[in-house]
Specification:
By secondary structure, this protein is mainly β. The protein contains one helix and 13 strands, in the order βαββββββββββββ. The chain is 6% helix and 48% strand. A hairpin with a 4-residue loop joins strand 2 and strand 3. It is globular.
């Protein structure tokens, strides 16, 4: 695995960056998407924690992670915008590969980690996103070194992808919604999110 993985508690009373919603708005959205169903009593949502658990990956060209709070997992990913579209990068030809790490949570709050590989044919702007050696650990624990967890699912996920400008999304493969972007002035990085019924994750990689 690459990058730095961290598991820690974040106090939501701290000042929010301008790009993020204020805490009360975020709580309303979490309740809407994670707790409420048609006909639910909106005056009683049960216990509501004031802290969240985070998995964070920091690379040279991409930053990514997943926040887990009150049973709702929220993936995120960002990096510097390239100076041109991937198709216009004259420094790349043939096939390009970005390697890195995937981090995520299961619905039971088990942390998941594994290897990420994004490969693109620069001629067709099609490729693959493969996540391998996927392991999980006990809820509340931090991901350990490779081989210290138990296999998540069958240990891997694979998707065919298509590139548009500096973004990519899945066009086939395993179930889930995968979206990503290329980062760095010359597309040195790739990062994105993956949302499935059994895994909410983010990934980052570099070439």
């Amino acid at each position: 695995m690459s990058g730095t993985e961290e598991l820690y508690e974040l106090n939501q009373d701290t000042q929010q960056p301008r790009s993020l919603l204020y805490p009360v708005d975020r709580e309303a959205l979490r309740a809407l998407y994670s707790r409420l169903a048609p006909g639910d009593n909106v005056t009683n949502l049960g216990p509501w924690a004031a802290t969240s658990t985070h998995l964070v990956g920091n690379g040279t060209y991409a930053h990514f992670g997943v926040a887990l709070r009150n049973g709702y997992a929220e993936p995120w990913a960002y990096g510097a915008i390239p100076g041109q579209d991937l198709a216009d990068n004259q420094g790349l030809s043939g096939n390009a590969t970005w390697n890195g790490t995937l981090l995520g949570f299961t619905p039971a709050a088990n942390p998941v980690a594994g290897d990420a590989e994004i490969g693109v044919n620069l001629g067709t702007l099609e490729g693959r996103a493969d996540f391998t050696a996927l392991e999980q650990w006990a809820a509340g624990a931090a991901p350990g070194n490779a081989g210290t967890g138990t296999m998540w699912g069958d240990g891997d996920l694979g998707y065919s992808i298509a590139v548009s400008g500096n973004t990519f999304k899945q066009t086939g493969g395993d179930t889930g919604i995968l979206t990503g972007i290329f980062t760095g002035q010359n597309h040195e990085g790739a990062t994105g999110t993956l949302d499935r019924s059994d895994l909410t994750a983010a990934f980052g990689a570099s070439r």
